[in-house]
Amino acid sequence: MKLGPRTAGWQQRHAEAYLKSNGREGHFVDFELPGVPEIPTLLLQTTGRKSKDAKISPLIYGKDGNRFVIVASKGGAPKHPDWFLNLSDEPDVRFQVADKKYRGVARTVSGAERERLFRMMAEIYPPYDDYQAKTAREIPVVTLEPREDIERL
């Protein structure tokens, strides 16, 4: 699936296609990076800190055992992405990987575990290294631990 990640609104279009097709579209994305195959993505649903509304974000993921791994890069911006701030306040989340939907718990990792998982994620999506180099903040790495399968996000 080509979504044009450099065009305005691509994340919204991605999430809509993912949900509408039950993960048949959007699970793998071609970010048009030389030598990088299509990249796996999931949908993360967090609860807004202020609004308390459900927020859905499409994110690149990797696997570590039964956990899913995501990176709060925001392209190397100086501030964390909203979805990360949301799950920092409320770590109970819902997420969809292809056609599987889960309720689970998000946990920010640190130390050697963070370094290992960040390296793994930079193998999947090499721009993460550039993002880390351009920001003073340590880009958070988060694991999503499934607790139960659910019917819908």
In total, the number of domains comes to: 1
Mean pLDDT: 90
Task: Give the class-level CATH name.
Answer: Mainly Beta
Number of strands: 8
User: Which radius of gyration do the C-alpha atoms yield?
Assistant: 15 Å
Portion of residues within helices: 25-40%
CATH architectural type:
Roll
As residue ranges, the low-confidence spans are 1-6
Strand content: 25-35%
Overview of this structure, please?
With 153 residues, the chain is an alpha+beta fold. The protein has one domain: Pnp Oxidase, Chain A (Roll). 26% of the residues lie in helices and 33% in strands. It contains four helices and eight strands. Strands 1, 2, 3, 4, 5, 6, 7 and 8 form an eight-stranded antiparallel sheet that branches. The longest helix has 14 residues, at 111-124. It is globular and about 40 Å long. The protein starts with 9 loop residues before the first helix and ends with a strand.
Can you describe this structure in just a few lines?
The protein is built from four helices and eight strands.
Lay out the secondary structure.
Blueprint: H1 10-20, E1 28-29, E2 39-47, E3 54-60, E4 62-64, E5 67-71, H2 82-89, E6 92-97, E7 100-109, H3 111-124, H4 127-133, E8 141-149
Antiparallel strand pairs: 1-2, 2-3, 2-6, 4-5, 5-8, 6-7, 7-8
Characteristics:
Pnp Oxidase, Chain A, 153 residues, alpha+beta, disordered N terminus
